[in-house]
Amino acid sequence: MANIKAQQRDRLIMELGILIQPFVELAGSQIPAPTGSYRIASAKVYAGDGEWRQSAKSLCNFANDIFLQSEFQKISHVNEVFLRGMLGHINVANQTNELDRLQSNCKLELDSLKDEFYKYLSDIPIDWEPEIFEANTPFTSYLKIRESISLVSNRIYYFDRYLKLEFFETFLKSVDRTKEIKLVTTAGKGDFGIKGVLAVSEMVRNEFQNYQLIEVSHKDIHDRNLIVDDSIFTLGPGIDRAGMCLTNFGPSDNSSKAFSGFDDIIKNGKIIHKS
Questions:
Q1: Could you give the CA distance from residue 229 to residue 227 in angstroms, rounded to a whole number?
Q2: Domain ranges (residues) in the chain
Q3: Comparing C-alpha atoms, which of 164, 217, 170, 172 is closest to residue 191?
């Protein structure tokens, strides 16, 4: 199956989110919870950790004789390290009854867990393959495009003559606000291009730390292209139309020349919005 490792990686991220949800709820509670609630949350994570590690093992298994042991060890131990740290904070809170500090430490431990997890996850090689999405498969197409975005480390650049609001709603919602975002489109009209997304872009630039909306000439871009970190992907119709009809999606030329070409398009464009 094409891009199976990307699918396994995306599933592992989702499963981790579900696994640590009890702590996420405690960290976000308006009233700091008692230590007993944290102990119950720990028990829930312990209970599901073994099954989650099996998903991590599948991701690290590339063949009968090819298993990324070192990478698996790092990924599979993130919950254990997190719970060990939380146990120390819980025991201190038991003695001091400083529940505000316990909640604050829980937030810090969650941030550390996520940072370590994504750092280790980025070591797993993902060999993208070109795909053709069948007509009338918009949800399947969305999931597969999201796989290319879900583990962004630094930047997302999207080039589309006919940029629409769907890109913001569907793909930027879950992206870390510290990542670099550049959206390159034409002046447009109605519901696409600069005119079509201007109001939403105004709000987005106040939320993302490193965001740009860039206007270029209609002749400067034709195909839709998506850059995620050091990978270039190309697709036929825009992201908002992927899977509505037969759609090409897959890796493109990742040479320095290709990146220079996209950099030139950006340099020659006009910045409309900037964080």
A1: 6
A2: 4-121, 131-274
A3: 164
Provide the residue type at 128 as one letter: W
CB-based contacts of 106, cutoff 8 Å, min separation 6: 23, 26, 27, 38, 86, 89
Domain 131-274: give its CATH code.
3.30.870.10
Helix, strand, coil percentages, rounded to 5, for the chain = 55, 20, 25
Q: CA dist 132 to 60, 135, 251, Å? A: 26, 9, 12
As a whole number of angstroms, the distance between CA 46 and CA 162 comes to 48
Q: What is the pLDDT along the chain (275 residues), one digit of tens a residue?
A: 456 887 888 889 889 999 999 999 999 999 999 999 999 999 999 999 999 999 999 999 998 889 999 999 999 999 999 999 999 999 999 999 999 999 999 999 999 999 899 889 988 887 776 666 666 676 766 777 777 787 688 899 999 999 988 888 888 887 889 999 999 999 998 889 999 999 999 999 999 999 999 999 989 988 888 999 988 988 876 666 665 666 677 778 888 999 999 999 999 999 999 98
Task: Give pTM, 2 decimals.
Answer: 0.64
Instruction: Report the chain's terminal Cα–Cα distance, integer Å.
Output: 40
Q: Which residue has the tokens 């050091």?
A: 230
Q: How far apart are CA 208 and CA 175, in angstroms?
A: 9
Rounding to the nearest 10 degrees, give the CA dihedral for residues 152, 157, 162, 167.
Answer: 30
**Residue 86 C-beta-side C-alpha neighbours within 13 Å:** 32
